[in-house]
Amino acid sequence: MPSAPVDFLYSNIGRGHPHYLDGILEVLDRSRLGRVDDVFKISWGIGRLGWHLARLLYRYGQSRAGLDPIYSRLRQGVDFENPGFLLKAMGGAIRSTHLNGSHPLIIAHPMLVGMLKKRRNLIYQHGEVAVPDDAIVSGEHSIFVPDSGAADCFMKAGFSSDQLIATGLCIEDSIAEQAQECFSLRLGRLEQAEDLTGAFFSSGAEPRRHIEVIVKAALSAAQQGHRILIFARRGGRLERYARNAFESGGVPLVERTKSYAIEKASLCLYADRSSLNSITSALFDHIDFFMAPSHERTHWALGVGLPMFIVEPAIGTFAPLNRQRLLTQGVAESITLDGAAEFGAMLRAVASNGKLVKMAEAGHQRFDIRGFRNIVNWIAEHH
Length: 383
Prior knowledge:
The chain folds into two domains: about 5-170 and about 370-380, 3-Layer(aba) Sandwich (Rossmann fold), CATH 3.40.50; about 175-360, Glycogen Phosphorylase B (Rossmann fold, 3-Layer(aba) Sandwich). Helix content is about 45%, strand content about 15%. The protein contains 18 helices and 13 strands. The chain has helices at about 15-25, 40, 45-60, 70-75, 85-100, 110-115, 150-155, 175, 180-190, 210-225, 235-250, 275-285, 300-305, 320-330, 335-340, 345-350, 355-360, 370-380, and strands at about 5-10, 35-40, 105, 120-125, 140-145, 165, 195-200, 225-235, 255, 265-270, 290, 310, 330-335. The longest helix is centred in the N-terminal third of the chain and has 16 residues, at about 45-60. It starts with 5 loop residues before the first strand and ends with a helix. The relative contact order is 0.14.
């Protein structure tokens, strides 16, 4: 009997949730690929406007200092047992398109779980090690989780162990493949405490509070002689802030989109998740440390021996829990706005005293990092 096609439904809000579907698609055999949908493309009318509103709240609701993210509050306030008018409208086209399907359908956003909780063969890809309350939606669906800790959180919420599949950390396959070789080279550079190369990332929303920390820290590191790679969405807030700050700071910022030569300070621009992944993979063997909010790249610090500096504050419901896991594991340090201007000097200190080496070793070979391949293997065995 031929294997059933595997369908995917994207929320396409931010990078985190869609990233986890991208990773499965990257390694899934094309012969198993079924329908790939996007909520924005299949929705209509008020429902489609609702999804656009959710995206706008995600992108712009985090910009003002002192305010909790509106998008997170929206998610926390959702009641899938008694959905309101807007939530029903947002789920209308999604249910009519996918509720009665029989193929395995993989989704990665809890709102979609609530809308499709009665569907057969529904699989929720929960890629994060953190499990906040708004990530848990009751139902009979299967759930991919990265480790036993995440599985325990779902079981405490009432899920059975049969519904949970521990996959290992979901790290981009193109990075997982080179992780061991890159670690050996990186460790040698860290042990010598030479000038280092750091990668700087924002979240998809590019909140101003994070951008200010990232740009100040990157400029400080460059002024201390380190090489920096700023990964920024073309035309976004991070690109604008970085160009202005580096010009004012007297450090040339070289745009890199196709050439991957390492300059003192490089601006690596991307248009979408695919181009970001391509640039990141091509440069990964040069990276000695990275700075990012505590979202999906948490897995890098936990799994591939790459020291992380966490951009503060921890925004949303996932980030504080991921942050705590990183600090407990000893693979990361926090960087606030007050400390960002001195980041270059701080980096030299932790490189010289061996702390960066310890951070790298604390995140090396502690977990299975082939989560995406393990997911595909599970699909082949069970569907």
